[in-house]
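Hi P.,

Sorry for the delay on this. The queue was packed all week, but I finally got your sequence through. Input first:
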Amino acid sequence: MKRILLWTFERGSFHWDVMCVLILAFLFLIPRNFFKDEPDYMRAPATESVHKNVDKSGNTIFTVKLDAPRFIDSVEVRNSAVDMLQQNLGHPARPLRMQPIRDWTGRVTAYAIWKER
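Then the structure:
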């Protein structure tokens, strides 16, 4: 046990090779979304069409889920997301910034919309 904890094995030995294979298997076989390394506003809401978040700076960010995934991030799709946000809020909203949220296939499933204060 002491040899494993202090790792006294020579480079190129059987133990070294096994450890390298385990590290590579961990890197390449674990799915990317396993670690959930993305902000909350970059996750498409599962049940609701519009979800409100606040980032560390205090900015309000709305995550607007599209009715169907799109392959292309176009002005038309962005405008439909802004329309959905305005319908949900009940008043006009001017977005400061919009960022598409893509699924693992690269399709746009939602938008993160920073709203003007």
